[in-house]
Amino acid sequence: MLQTHINKHIEALIFSSVQSISVQEIILALNAVFEEEVIENQVFESIDHIKEKYGVENFAIELVNLNNGYQFLTKKEYHETVNQLQLHRSKKKLSQAAMETLAIIAYRQPITKLEIEQIRGVNSDYSVQRLLEKELISIEGKAETPGRPILYSTSPLFMDYFGLNNLTQLPQLKDIAKEENTVGENAE
């Protein structure tokens, strides 16, 4: 089987995937279609070729490695233009309450709804439900505490949506806290 033939199929798979697609998913899809077995090295060779192809100035998109998979994204110089479109579609925007809930889940996962509500100080039923509907969080299982409450965690779509490969890339509190918000003298 020709590598250029595989390249086109892999490009089509990545293009058609709403979320990042892993190398294992690509191999499964290709092996279901082709008689010859496609191996991991062939997929990585194709991915390198596709990255090179879209790396030139002629294209407004590029192939990016996200969340242990690959996805086509707009190049950084076009982010402001795309952002304008997103502003017009802000109906799908998350509310402040949903963003607070999502941040708590991202940093404290897996976490129960009671724990979320204790941190926020208000009922979070609606926010948790909206985040589940938008598939930004998922049910991780049940806690081993009395009543066995549901545990929530962020989903792979959360990783794609915020452009993260893993949770260690989340901003740390020290990165976002302003020095003017400190109390007392700084010790040197």
TrEMBL record:
Gene Ontology process terms (BP): cell division; chromosome separation
**Which InterPro entries does the entry link to?**
ScpB_csome_segregation, WH-like_DNA-bd_sf, WH_DNA-bd_sf
Source organism superkingdom:
Bacteria
The record's keywords, sorted A to Z, are: Cell cycle, Cell division, Chromosome partition, Cytoplasm
Where does the signal sequence lie? none
Keyword Cell cycle attached: yes
**PANTHER family linked to this entry:** SEGREGATION AND CONDENSATION PROTEIN B (PTHR34298)
Task: Indicate what this protein is called per its UniProt record.
Answer: SMC-Scp complex subunit ScpB
Give the organism, scientific name. Pedobacter paludis
